[in-house]
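Quick note —
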Amino acid sequence: MSAAGVALLGNMWALLMFGLGLLIAQYTPGLLRLDLFAHHIPHGLMIGAGSIALLQALHLLRTSRTTPTGQRTATAAADTFQPQRRTVSMRRVRTGLCQGFVLFVAGAVLVALTGGLSTGMSTASLCGWVLLAAGGALVHQLIIGLAAMHSGWFPAFAVTLIFLTIGLLAHIPSIALAMLVGYVASTGPAFADMGFDLKAGWLLRIRTVPWLPAEKAGRLQQYRAELLGFLIAVAVVAWLWQPFFTQGRIPPLAKIYTATIKTGLTDPGILTQLALWALPGAALQLLGGPSRQMGVLLATGLLVAAPQAGWLVLLALLTRVLYNRRSRRTSASATDAPGPDGRSDDPLTLIGAGLIAGSSLYDLTQIRKAL
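Predicted structure written out below.
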């Protein structure tokens, strides 16, 4: 139901690919007698699409041009929001990414030392592991952040499989590979969630006058709220992990990671299969562009493979199309994007939000049962 709710809110092309991927994963094994995972089709598609998505993100960082921080216009509307005016220059963004990579390296070193990897790996292998973990964390957040901002859905599990496959190809030991996957997987969702939060605050503050000081003050308050949420999350995990694990309540994706690590890439033809299926994934991602994320979301649907979820996504998209057509015929203003004040006249956005909220409430009841 949360996927159906996102389909009422996010990019239609991206969610269409996601729904198709879910349906293909559900019915292909029975109709065509084809095991997608055995042939590494979803993995190859995600590797190809993820590689192009990374290049697209880097291209956006290289070509974007913004107004320097604090630059004022001579118009009377200098205190209001203007599209060409930014609070942070692109140069500062690039610097922040470089600083983030350095911090990811430090975090990977900490994980390696506390996890005991330094005692079981050579110095060269340990340095390679640290660089792969840090680079994977940075790439992970870029791909997921871009997909989340455009589609409303962040493919954390799917993109993590790219680095799991790279680790298998590099013959990283099982324990070190599990730690690599955990470290990489922890970065993308946090980055995407913070992006959602900051964008929501930006939409709420966009009409404030004077805009610039209000925006900066609002971001500071949101950042403090994020830090408080992080501390609460640490306490909740420390409290709940043991009851969950003792009852066998382990996420399905963790079992997929484990099975993939245990199986490994023993067949020499697997690399050829990955390269072969990476081509259509890359082509689809290139065709859709960074704003649609078609290749990444199709591969995500194939990897998630939740039964019946694809039908709900397509039903939500069909409802959205029919509603928009009816609205245009009656001269109503129904658009996919919010207005300049961050609000939308489309009631489907509220319906989608309600579906997501209801699904979250159900998830909370499952947590209560686990306790």
